[in-house]
Specification:
mainly alpha; 4 helices; about 50% helix; two-stranded antiparallel ribbon
Amino acid sequence: MQPPKRSRTLRLRLHVHLGDEHSLGPGKVQLLETVRELGSITAAARSMGMAYRHAWDLIDDLERCFRRPVVETASGGRAGGGARLTPFGAEVIRRFRAMERAANAGMAKELRALEAELRPARRPARRRRRPSG
């Protein structure tokens, strides 16, 4: 009896190089989307399982790249700080997601052809139990 065939699909992961020093990819876009949703860089970082400093560095990279800001921040204090996506930040998200859709649609036929040539996924090796004693 043959093991069940495991599904494997090909997918694209768009990564746009913005000159030699900056880039825009799914991680940064997801961070912007999460900041928009939660209203905080700290909360966005926490929900994505990343350090606040790393999230801030990613946003700072975009801020240094573009002429217009992608996020506006307010200092903390008793009322708490926060962050909100600027209209340009929303445009960056919209344009990136549109590029993703276009890339996937434009390459769907080629991806299916390559996918048809994939070997079936191998089952993970079983771990042998050590005899207790």
